[in-house]
Amino acid sequence: MATAIKIENVSKQYRLGVISTGTLSHDLNRWWATKIMRKEDPYLKIGDTNDRSTKGKSEYVWALKDINMEIEQGDVVGIIGKNGAGKSTLLKLLSRVTKPTTGTIKYRGRIASLLEVGTGFHPEMTGRENIYMNGAIMGMTRAEITRKLDEIIDFSGCERYIDTPVKRYSSGMTVRLGFAIAAHLDPEILVVDEVLAVGDAEFQKKAIGKMQDVSKGEGRTVLFVSHNMGSIRQLCKNGVLLEKGMINFSGDINSVVTKYVSTHKSNLSEDLSLWKKREGNGRVKFQRVYVTDKEGKELETVLTGSDIVFNFDVYAKDNCEIDLGFSFFTTDDVMISNLYSSFQHRTFKIKEGRHTISCLVKDFAFSTSELFVRGVINADKELSDWPSCHLTKINIEQGNFYGSGVLSPSTNIFLFKGDWSIK
Amino acid sequence: MAIFKHTINKQTQEEQYSTITSTNRLLDVNLKELIAYKDLIRMYVKRNIVTFYKQTILGPLWFIIQPILTTVMFMFVFGNLAGISTDGIPGPLFYFAGIIIWNYFADCLNATSGTFTTNQNVFGKVYFPRLVVPIAVTISNLVKFFIQLAIFLIIYIVYAIQGIGIAPNIYILLFPLLIIMAAGLALGFGIIFSSMTTKYRDLTFLLQFGVQLWMYATPVIYPLSTMPADKQWIFQLNPMTSIIETFKYAAIGNGVFSWGWLGYSFAFMIVLLLVGIVIFNKVEKSFMDTV
């Protein structure tokens, strides 16, 4: 297949901090060096890598550094990475909102970006007028829009409101209308950045279906940025994992998601065995708590709907029978659920020494972005260990909980499914 | 045969590639692209006009009220209080002629000079030729200008019937050119300012009162002929001077007309536009990083 997008040595440098008094002197300095002395731009040589959390030395930063990739026509590529890894910067360059500092991007056909749908909607104008306006902004001609107007209105599901000013629309309706326009734009390359989060499930399904049609049936290329591993997995064939402005890994989407989920380490890494503030007689103590998949591979990010294993390394001073419990806390420190082994009539008779107690949780159904785990051990029915700290933190991304690929609205903190029937 | 066909395909595909690069050519204006977006220009023009009077009671009447009130003010302040001559021309006619052209220029300039800052939300998300926006502004202001021009014509006819002895001369044929020049100058200055203000906001303040002061340096409220003949060239250096003077000369027979200075203004406009477009093109590709 032909190449749709070719990215060669693309880098993007940003200046940090407040742009104010230094600007003029830097500009003059740069102008002097490049135009008069014919040397290299002095500010391009410096610049830190793009690491959000560390304090940098330079006020220039590389949001993207030496990106090289080729995307084939008809491919659906998922771009994943932590916040600030450079995903949106890459999409901005592709949609020509800003230019790269170095390098070139070659592409074929029309690129339409859905960086934020409803762009250019004017609140005072009606839905219909905005369809024309928005379509024109995205490069459609008036005749093209007129031809597709009915289809767009129908897809958006906003027919009743189409002659009402957009300022009266709900945010969901605005997104629906915006997406409907973009989806009917027939661009050769569609760039999508986290739009599906706003609509309801029906619309999400519609949007995902449309994006699949666009790529499969019509051979168009789609670039898709999302934190939602479920929809990424469902939509994309290939993926690119960005880290600190560089390509960490690329390949088929499943391997990229796996790589991302396993490298996405959180910052809770204190040594539990040294933690001082804990209640209990201390006969058996927590040493380390971690989450793995069924094969035993350690995870810091888990997907809803997946099967995961909670592992508790404990150390016992003498032989005893223990009951182990753990609980989940939200970031607001609200406990949402707990489980003791004794709830299921399980206790463990252990000897002196180190042991790992594991608990397999099937169809993981908690859907907050982060969960903190606390734990407690009772030895011979007496409190043995109850650390005051969180034992571990797990990051949760939306996975394929329902088995259908449909995502749950992000407001849900707990998911459930059922067997449906009709009489 | 099949292979041969394939290579041809590949070649034509190679040519279809568009490129996004870090380097800038000096005159990188893609006129073809701008024409491809002519529907967008039309939509912007329509939007500017429609949203101007949405949720107002008087609506488009504001286009008329504004210059009439200004004229009344000028007649009172400059005509009566300051006693500045209008060269024997009735006040309303004299002031109105200057005001509508000046207002068109000033409105266009003020609006286009904020192109990047007021549109950063849209510009930050989608690409289209940014020149669409300032061009649409100059066109939509034209609608307002023509409404005001109609009022001017009514005043003109009323005075003509009363027998003041005014009649347009052959130079009125230059009128479309004058409008193009005013639009070009406003667009040129506007896009230069809008390019600079993305980084240096100071210029916004400069422009705000600069335009007000500029009006007094232009023969809007006084005829150029009242200035000493040997000092008039200083005023003529202002490219707006010959535009307004030519219009007054052609319409009401009062004003200083010279092909030389009109040519100077025209050349000024062309150079300004070229410089403006070069700067604008350079800035439009990366302004999102500095705005």
Beta-strand content estimate of chain B = under 5%
Please trace the helix and strand order of chain B, writing H or E for each element. Answer: HEHHHHHHHHHHHH
Q: What is the distance, rounded to the nearest whole angstrom, between the alpha carbons of the first and last residues of chain A?
A: 50 Å
Write down the overall geometry of chain A. Answer: globular
Q: Characterize the biggest β-sheet of chain A.
A: 8 strands, mixed
Please name the two chains that share the biggest interface, counting residues whose Cβ lies under 8 Å from a Cβ on the partner chain. Answer: A-B, 45 and 36 residues
- The proportion of residues forming helix of chain A, as a percent range, comes to 10-25%
Structural class of chain B: mainly alpha
Give me the count of strands of chain A: 22
Q: Return the CATH architecture of the largest domain in chain A.
A: 3-Layer(aba) Sandwich
Helix content percent band of chain B: 55-70%
- Please tell me the overall pLDDT of chain B: 83
Tell me the domain tally of chain B.
1
Give the class-level CATH name of the largest domain in chain A. Alpha Beta
How many domains, in number, for the residues of chain A? 2
Please explain how this structure is put together.
The complex is a heterodimer of chains A (423) and B (291). With 423 residues, chain A is of the alpha/beta class. Chain A has two domains: 3-9 and 65-256, Rossmann fold (3-Layer(aba) Sandwich); 272-397, Coagulation Factor XIII, Chain A, domain 1 (Distorted Sandwich). Helix content of chain A is 24%, strand content 34%. Chain A has nine helices and 22 strands. In chain A, the strands form four sheets. In chain A, strands 11, 14, 16, 17, 18, 20, 21 and 22 form an eight-stranded mixed beta sheet that branches. A six-stranded mixed beta sheet of chain A has the order 6-7-8-4-9-10, sandwiched between helices. In chain A, strand 9 and strand 10 form a beta hairpin. The longest helix of chain A has 16 residues, at 201-216. The model of chain A has no long low-confidence stretch (mean pLDDT 81). Chain B has 291 residues and is mainly α. Chain B has one domain (39-289). Helix content of chain B is 69%, strand content 2%. Chain B has 13 helices and one strand; from the N terminus they run αβαααααααααααα. In chain B, helix 4 (62-81) packs across helix 5 (91-112) and helix 5 runs antiparallel to helix 12. Chain B is globular and about 65 Å long. Classes of the chains: A alpha/beta (423), B mainly alpha (291). Chains A and B meet through strand 1, helix 1, helix 3, strand 5 and helix 4 of A and helix 1, strand 1, helix 3 and helix 7 of B.
